Task: structure prediction
Amino acid sequence: MTTGTITIGRLSARTGVNIETIRYYERIGLVPAPMRSAGGHRLYDEDASTRLSFVKRARELGFSLPEIRSLIGLEETAPTCADVYALATSHIQSIRKRINDLQALEQRLATLAANCSRSENTECPIIDALGGAYE
Amino acid sequence: MTTGTITIGRLSARTGVNIETIRYYERIGLVPAPMRSAGGHRLYDEDASTRLSFVKRARELGFSLPEIRSLIGLEETAPTCADVYALATSHIQSIRKRINDLQALEQRLATLAANCSRSENTECPIIDALGGAYE
DNA sequence: GCTAACATCTGTAGCGGCTACAGGTTCAAG
DNA sequence: CTTGAACCTGTAGCCGCTACAGATGTTAGC
Result:
């Protein structure tokens, strides 16, 4: 084995990214294909670990794989700071929208549940609200 | 055509559920297969419209299709009010969790973006935070 | 009645982002 | 040298639709 390289299992343990997911990222070209051992096993260097961690953190921040691809500079040109900022702010917008939607949803559900008798029969205000009310 | 029945297109327009989605719901058994015209076109009655609206509203409240299936009483037994209440409250929990997660995310992204120079070069604090910081 | 335009039909494949096999090979420890 | 763990490839499945392709049905106007 080449010095300083690790197997996919170790890389997975180190980065917290599932083995299958690492291979998936390779397949779609999000991370480069690593060198191989004589027998065909993947061998990763430090760079690979860095790049994979980057992807993972970006995922945790809610970026999609195509977005990460451009963040990582895999497109023709590496993104400028202004590009990244634009992507980040548009992301923030959509996160805020989702929060709003979810809060409205929570309100509606909570209201319905509050009216609920929790009895053992099949008469239920939640079902009523879904079914008969306004159709 | 039988009196009082409508085509899938009209049903779609009336309920706001996509035609393809209606057929999908039928295929997975979420709504019953309707009668057919001589030529094989689907013909829906009022009941179908009611049931489809039910499904749509439940989807809007964030219930999954399997959950809706049990809400609708397609399982062996129709759910009791207590069952529905349990499902609703567990839903509320998971919605609250998602709201929390998204708010934390928004915070992190906003903080990163605030430090951003928005310049036209490739040096960027967001990228730095993703890439180098702690690996 | 005939034609044109539109609606609907079936079946299948694709989206995102993985995850889970099956059935085989390689590696490392003892 | 053997064992057992780790790894390999390839494919199919998850959810909830959506988007075709290519065929057939329906309906309005002439």
Chain B has two domains: 1-63, 80-135. The first helix of chain B runs from residue 8 to 15. The two ends of chain B are 69 Å apart (CA to CA). Chain B touches chain A through 51 residues (CB under 8 Å).
